[in-house]
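Ticket 4471: requesting a sanity check on a complex prediction with nickel (II) ion. Repro inputs:
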Amino acid sequence: MALRNLRLEGDEILRKKSRIIKNINDRIKILSEDMIETMNENDGIGLAAPQVGVLKRLIVVDIEENPMVMINPEILEKSGEQIINEGCLSVPNKNGDVKRPEQLKVIYTDLDGNSHTIKTEGLLSVVISHEVDHLNGVLFIDKVIKETEVKEGVVKS
Ligand code: NI
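Returned structure tokens:
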């Protein structure tokens, strides 16, 4: 495993749309391992491939016991709303309140090529929504309803 360099706001790659992954090969497996290591090293709870300069639809999420790798994640349904103070590993100098769905229904493929449809709520919905935005070139600062001071303990992904 290896750490990858984080791309920061202003880097045009963060504004591009990522491509669907058709083959889950060794490069994808290594990328996902590196992304988990990079996320953990930077105290993040999620990371999307464009944040390490790769325009592929791959995200990692780490809020439960084990990090999840989600390939080609797609939000099928959303409901409810929640407002949470967010940060982003690609926008280290800003925090802000963002309105996100409370519940999601998400389909994704795992590293073994198996498809899963899951229902999420709370923080997991926030992170998946934030990461899928990254795959579409959207940053949380585009959606912020109130900028807040930058402080420790704010979730970053
Ligand atoms: Ni982010």
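Notes from triage: The chain has one domain: 12-156. Leaving this open until the requester confirms.
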